[in-house]
Structures are given as C-alpha cells and as structure tokens.
Amino acid sequence: MKDTNEMEILFDSRSENEGFARVAVAAFMTQLNPTVEEVSDVKTAVSEAVTNAIIHGYDNQICKVSIRCSVRGKELMVEVRDTGKGIENIKQAMTPMYTSKPELERSGMGFSFMEAFMDNVHVISEPGEGTRVIMKKSIGKERETWITQSL
C-alpha cells in the first residue's frame, strides 16, 4: 500500500534511552506533517510507555524494549513492547493513581497520560511474558476540523 510506512527499533531498557525513544518516534511521524502539539502528545505517551517497561516490566534490569511504528493514511500507530514480568490485572494497572511501586513515589498516571494524549490505547499483557502497549493517533484531525468550520 502506497500510504503505509513502518519502522522498528530495539534498545536497552535504560532510563537514558527514554529520550531516544521519544525523538525516534517524533522523527518518524514528521512524514504526517504534525503540529507541535501532536508531536508533544505522542512524545509524552511514548515516554510513559517506555518508562513503564523499564521500571515496572523489567524492575530496572537491563533487557530489551522494542518500539514498532506504522503510518497508514493519517493514522500513527505506536507499539511499545517488553518481555518483562507482565501485568497481572490490566484494569487495575490502568486506574488513575494506581502504582505497583509506591516506594518509588510513582504517580500512577502513566496509562492515564497515554489515554489522554492518544486516540486509542490498548494493553496486552501476560504475567511472566511481558506487555504490549498499542497506541493510535490520527494526525491532522484538528486542522481538518478547523478548515471545515472555516469554510
């Protein structure tokens, strides 16, 4: 399909790589001509997903995190995957203010931020197998609405 593009990166689960992940996804999405706000939203969501993989999935052990992105039409899909300990209760983990690491003074807002900044967030996880966070965002949606309303 002509309007489809994909990329995948694999990196160590080190907290200093969170910034790399944000910039890599932001660079990939530039093909959609996003607004500064759209780039910021996606970078925040990616940051939260990668941080969750490092802190909760791997307990700060050095393993691998992968990010797969695709563009289909005007939709960006970002999948952040770890092969860590997984999530026992996804519904509970996605509850605002819930954290499995209160001793680290975590806010428990990671999934809430992902849901606020992306159009769709889907979490697949198996204890002992790892977690996949799949996020989608339509790029240019606000501009199309603005243009339509201006006409």
From TrEMBL:
Which Enzyme Commission numbers does its entry carry? Answer: 2.7.11.1
* Record keywords: ATP-binding, Kinase, Nucleotide-binding, Serine/threonine-protein kinase, Sporulation, Transferase
Q: Which reaction does it catalyse?
A: L-seryl-[protein] + ATP = O-phospho-L-seryl-[protein] + ADP + H(+); L-threonyl-[protein] + ATP = O-phospho-L-threonyl-[protein] + ADP + H(+)
Is Acyltransferase included in the keywords of this UniProt record? no
Q: Which Pfam families match?
A: HATPase_c_2
Ranges for the Histidine kinase/HSP90-like ATPase domain? 37-141
Q: List the PANTHER family.
A: ANTI-SIGMA-F FACTOR RSBW, ANTI-SIGMA-F FACTOR RSBW-RELATED
Q: Name one GO biological process term.
A: negative regulation of sporulation resulting in formation of a cellular spore
Q: What is this protein called?
A: Anti-sigma F factor
Q: Which GO terms describe its molecular function?
A: ATP binding; protein serine kinase activity; protein serine/threonine kinase activity; sigma factor antagonist activity
According to its UniProt entry, the function of this protein is described as: Binds to sigma F and blocks its ability to form an RNA polymerase holoenzyme (E-sigma F). Phosphorylates SpoIIAA on a serine residue. This phosphorylation may enable SpoIIAA to act as an anti-anti-sigma factor that counteracts SpoIIAB and thus releases sigma F from inhibition.
Q: Which family does it belong to?
A: Belongs to the anti-sigma-factor family.
Q: Which domain of life is it from?
A: Bacteria
Q: Does the keyword Glycoprotein apply?
A: no
**Matching InterPro entries:** Anti-sigma-factor_SerPK, Anti-sigma_F, HATPase_C_sf, HATPase_dom
User: What is the organism field in this record?
Assistant: Mediterraneibacter gnavus (strain ATCC 29149 / DSM 114966 / JCM 6515 / VPI C7-9) (Ruminococcus gnavus)
